[in-house]
Write a structure and sequence with these properties.
16 helices; single chain; about 15% strand; about 40% helix; eight-stranded mixed beta sheet; alpha/beta; about 575 residues
Amino acid sequence: KMSSSSTPPLSHSPVTAGSPTDMFQSQLDASEINMAMFSMPTSGVAKRNAVLDTELSMTSVTSGGRQDSLKSSPIVCSEDDATLEHPHPLNGTLDHGMTDEEALERRTRETAQHGRLSKSIEGTPQIIHQRDTQPLLICMVGLPARGKTYTSRRIMRYLAWLGVKCQVFNVAIYRRKNVGYPKAEFFDQANDDSSARLMEVFEQALDDTHKWISEGGQVAIFDGTNHSKVRRQAIINKLKPLIPCNRMMFIELCNLYGGAKYSNESDKAKEAIALMPEYIGMDPGDAFTDFKKRVQYYNEAYEPVTKNEGVPFLRCSAENISMHHLDGYLTGRLSFLMMNLKVMHRIIFMCLTGEEIHTLSPKSSSRSVKENDDEISPRDLSESGRINSKNALSCSAMLRVKLEQKSGFLKLSDESEAFAKSLVGLLRESVPHNAPVTVWTSNDQPGLATVRYLQEAGYPTVYWRYLGEFGFSVAQKMMGETYEDIIERLEPVIFEIERCETHLLICGHTQVMNALYAYLAEGGSTKLKKNTIVKVQPRAYDLEHETYAMEGSSLQAVSPVPIESHTQ
């Protein structure tokens, strides 16, 4: 533990129990707090094409009269003299500039890594890709409060959704635990004492990152300002023995708000900064003033990422996104995610389609088939002809029922009808300042019936076939759509959620919504229920979560949880 700071801490009122700041006042060390705040279950499934890449037999090479598969042996080591033979260049995992000892060490580590990635979690395969058997480092770069921690959390959520073992290492958590909450002057880069202490915190977080990767971690996200070339070079030098430079991805977040968010003292800016753990309980005006001074100190020493640093990077600004030397399956997926990601606080409501009541059924239809009705076909038909005729008429009656339902004959149950009506009032009460809300629903009758009152109230509605019921899968021999298929078809919805700039209400069918809820609720085990609606709001350090259920003719909060911290 570091010695206490000579700089007086910011004074503010005690925080309430359960808030993220409480953890810094506990007996946990910085590493334990980081793991508690940034831990998510790896609950996704792999993209089918990525899994098949490693299931296929790869090109083989001959070593001393025997064959080794590139899938299991990135570097082939003969048994007699431990000399290294280079496999086919398609493998792409060998650095020909390494010594034999370094290559042998990497081969051993990659073989163990591949064995870990080949395992399943709860019967669900993880992403395995020939180019991604090596660990990946994602390093955030940018001034304070540019959305680095929020972005890190969204990246971790997306990777965990896909089944990738990942972890965020937040330098600010180590600083808050070891240094406390100093004033802005502590971050003056000309202050040698405070700079040395900040470097100690930085190195502690970097050591934990190194340890986690060496123990089998697949993707590490190093979340900090990393504002100078010296800091970034220290990261490269520390982790280069474990991760080659082409597997280090620097993500630089510039001013994503076009300079407007922090150039004026708007209420929205003050509220956003007041949510930072060190400013919880402070007067918003005082917090904003202190924060601006801190940004000024960092800005004086800030150095953007350049091509000369020799690492792949992605730079995001309010106007465009630029990339340099990005290569690989995961980096490609993350690049597409960054193109769609919006750093903003939004409320997302989720509910299931209502329970429907069919006005007609094949049995109640006047054209339904009676079991012993001989008048439906001429008497001169054979017995098989009579059976086929009855079956054809029964199918016709079933088809007519479905057409009648699509023509507006479908009705919701009384409870679901009341639930649909209550959605309008809930949105008006829960969304602040009458902010715009977009409604997403499945393009079938249950989805349309559930949101029709929202449409009448003027809320814009988008119809998604991806939110509909299970379909049939040819790959599963018409046995029904699997959860792997659902994950694949929900990925466009996830990207669109991250891209949307309004609040959202999403209404869909059970299996689809539970899979989507697992993503938005960050791996929670709770499943959605009929005639209930869940409100989630992802934030940088925690997740706001509330559930509403029908009580009488209105929706009421059920055991509201203002903050669902990941320490729970």
